[in-house]
Sequence to fold (356 residues):
Amino acid sequence: MQPAVVQAEPGNDVAAQVVATMRQMGVVGLPRNYEIFYEALSGSNPRLGLEVIALGNHPTQTELDRIGRKYFAQNHGQGIVEQAREVIAHELEDIAQLLRSERSHLEKYGQILDQTSDGLNNRATITKDLLHKIACAMSSATASTIDQGKRATDALKEKSAELETVKSKLEEYKHLADTDPLTQIWNRRAFDRRIANIYNNSRSVLFNALILADIDRFKTINDRHGHPVGDRILQLIAGIFRTNIRDDMFVARTGGEEFALIVEGTTEHATFELADNIRALIEKTLFPGAQPGVNYGPVTVSMGICMASDATSADDLYAKTDRALYRSKLNGRNQTTRFSEIRDRMGKNWLLYKKD
Fold:
């Protein structure tokens, strides 16, 4: 299956490649199918990619559904959205009915007041007995209206709580859809949105930077030790990123063995120090196996950094950071390179280098 074998090139429009590949293979444009092919072409889930390749050039929907249930079972995306839609529609109708009932009750109360006022105005004499009857009637009507109001308030509170639960479920689904299931950090989809936001205002452009990190010789690790070991290494490296950056920093797994870190409010020097400190920590980290005394390290990463002000768009920022990353690979791996150091000096040779 040629279309799915080729991983999307850095900086290219992955979404466009997904659409073209699905069209070529005759795959129906269902949301879950788009999700499967996005993961396969972006390289963020190598195992899923291999299973898609194994389906051949004309996969059936049944086969794709099986992959969807296997890799995205925690999302239940379409089901969650449809269920939420039904619940919201039902709750809103209940709220509307409550408001209609409350309006009707208040209208009746108003009519009682009007009728009482008219009756008093039209009587020549007002006796003590009449006033007593009026007071009893008004007291009963007022008490009934107050009780109705309390019941309506309680019912609206209950409906609000139910709608809040639906909102929480949708927020959870949104988070799951943007989370890499293996490493539990952000995925490529979330990264694409976040990096695009950098160029929405001039301040972000001035003070943001991108760091890309790629595990050195990761294919060799998988070939030698197997994918479970490779998965464990990815999880440990993701953990190193999480525990060594500020809470407001954005880290994502953007490909099979590639990570991206968006840094805000920093200089190029500070960005370089952050990246190189994480690189050094990864190099020093032990990657223990299941058996005592087994260590799969040392594992190293190559890194590239670029300031947003050195690029004209999100795609340009990614491409230039990737050039810096490739230079780290070309220079022997396990190092960090600034794009500003290599600006206009690499020519086109970097395009010929294959990361591993």
About this structure: The chain has three domains: 2-71, 77-177, 188-352. Confidence is low (pLDDT under 50) at residues 1-12, 347-354.
